[in-house]
Structure formats: structure tokens, C-alpha cells
């Protein structure tokens, strides 16, 4: 109860802080929310592992209560640690979360929000924008962040369910910070569709871990920067997606692809299929040079880009893939790296369908 009151008080304080700073420094908004989420999650993680310990004199290690002990030893790649080790690792992961996420958010602010005016918190409906690929991007971002966080919390040795829920919901929590920043931006606003997509991404990882103790269906991403023969398209892309690689990576929906990769052996354990084999279905868009249409206007309403002759359409991809987590190694650090690298689609032969036509790529990324 006291934790709920403290959390409510923190939210009230955040509201007051955001009203004061929103016109001058949105980075402080990011850091305030970041600190709130991470403090709440890590406090929950610490509390669960420092009580009800039972000493095993055979190896001089203190184990948690029986329920949590059974939970850990059924957790694949678990880290069975003493409460002292757990507490130390929880602190380490807390610092990694605070430092890494804060740096990422400051970088995102500089790349995306810095040059746009601020406003009061507001919402808007963007369901029909960018042919929906931005919503897929939100779901993927939440999934990727949740996966990284969950694997870090696994390393701390906390219980299975707490590791899944704390780590798995981190992505949605972190994305909510970004959504709040959108809400204070005059160019955008709080989007309930984005908010739902964030929880869908986190839900995909949480649901699979609770059901199967593994990710049988991986959410993956690939990117290749588009260059066009028409100078007007390159100029338009620079204007709306950014001219440097980092901005294009974040914003250029024509260059992005999102995949769902299923491990067939996991679903058919008695088959002779190799355990590393994935089958992937991906999607992306082409010809998208504006949120809802390919017309660009200046502040006075004058048309500065007319791309109505370029068809906007969705593309679909079908390809094999490799499950990096099936690479055998006894090094848990390498296992962690393979888990994190598994959110990127490996370039392999790909069948593409779009605009009523099929195309075959020797390698597609």
C-alpha cells in the first residue's frame, strides 16, 4: 500500500515537473519518467529475494524459499545465486538500465524532437498514418527492449516470474516515456494506437515466456537505406526521414522490414528438422513519402512536393532464418549476446510480394 502511495506521489510530482519544464527542456521529462519506472521495477526485484532464506549446510549456500527455488531451477539458463550475489547483480542491472536508457533517450530527443516546438499534453489519432508500419515499429521496439531487459534480469538470479514480468513489461514502460514525449510535442501527440502497440510487443515476449519458457516466435528487424534515381525522392526522404544514417534508421519506413520468425522444431519436437531453422514472414512499405499521402506542403500551405504518381503499397516477405540461440556454447555471456542478436533478421534468400508482383532476392535485409 505504501509503495502505491509513493508511486502516486511520484506521478503527481512528475506532473508538476513536466508543466514547469516542458517549454524549456524535454530531456528532463524523459529522465524523470525513466527514474520513476526503473526505481519501481528494481525495488520490486530486490524485495523478493532477500526474505525467507533457508541455509543448505552441504554447500554453504543460502537458497530462497522452496517455491522460488523450484521456480528458478525450472528456468532455462537460470543463475542460481546467493541472496548477496542477487542483490549485487540487481544493483548492477539497475545502473545499466538507468545509464543505457537515459543515453538512448537523450540521443532520440536530439535526433527526433529537439527542433520541434513543445505544447501542452494532448492526444491525436494516427491509426491511418504510414500504412501502419510505425505501429509495427512500436511493437517491435517494446519487444526488443523487453527482451534485453528480461535477459539482464535473468542474469541477476531473481525468480522466474518476476524476471519475466519486470523485464517483459520494461519495454512497454520505456516506450510509454516516448509516447509521453510525443504528447508534449506540437508536431505529434499521445497516440492510443501506439500505446496499444507497445503493450502488444511486450505481451508477445511475456506470453511466450510464461507459456513455453522460450521465444518460439521471434520478432525481428532489418533495414537497408533506400536511394532513388529521382533526385526529388531523395530530397523528400532527407526532409521527412532525415539525411544521416541514424535518423533514417529510426524514421525511414520505406527502408525498414519487420519479421515474425518461428522455430519449427519447437512446435514439432519429434520432427527431424534442425533446431536452428526458422521460417520468417516479414512486411514493409514502399512509396510512402508522407503520413497519409505523398503531398508535401510548407508552413504557408504551398505544395513543395507532389508524389501522387508514386503508388503507396505494402510488401510481404517470406524467407528462412537462423535461430542464433541454438548455437551450442557453455558460456552464459555468449548465450546472452546470442539472445540479444536474435532480434535482427539475418540476410538470406527471400521471396517478396508487393504491388501485385513476386520478386526473388538472393539476399534481403
Notes on the structure:
Helix 2 runs antiparallel to helix 4 (83-113) and helix 2 runs antiparallel to helix 6. The chain is an alpha+beta fold and 365 residues long. Residues 1-36 and 47-63 have low confidence and may be disordered. The chain contains 11 helices and 10 strands. The longest helix has 31 residues, at 83-113. The chain is globular. It has 2 domains: 1-213, no CATH class; 216-365, no CATH class. A hairpin with a 5-residue loop joins strand 6 and strand 7 (303-306). Helices cover 50% and strands 17% of the residues. The strands form 3 sheets. Strands 3-4-5-8-9-10 form a 6-stranded antiparallel sheet. The chain has a two-stranded antiparallel ribbon with strand order 1-2. A two-stranded antiparallel sheet has the order 6-7.
What would the average pLDDT be, to the nearest integer?
Answer: 81
Question: Assembly state here?
Answer: single chain
Note the total helix count: 11
Class from secondary-structure proportions: alpha+beta
The helix content is 40-55%
Give the beta-strand count: 10
What is the straight-line distance between the termini?
A: 49 Å
Q: Major beta sheet, specifics?
A: 6 strands, antiparallel
H/E element sequence:
HHEEHHHHHEHHEHEEEEHEE
Overall geometric form: globular
Low-confidence stretches: 1-36, 47-63
Summarize the helices and strands and which ones pair or pack.
Layout: H1 2-21, H2 26-47, E1 54-56, E2 61-63, H3 66-73, H4 83-113, H5 133-156, H6 160-183, H7 192-212, E3 217-223, H8 231-241, H9 245-251, E4 256-263, H10 264-267, E5 277-286, E6 295-297, E7 303-306, E8 313-322, H11 332-341, E9 348-354, E10 357-364
Antiparallel strand pairs: 1-2, 3-4, 4-5, 5-8, 6-7, 8-9, 9-10
Helix pairs in contact: 1-2, 2-4, 2-6, 4-5, 5-6, 5-7, 6-7
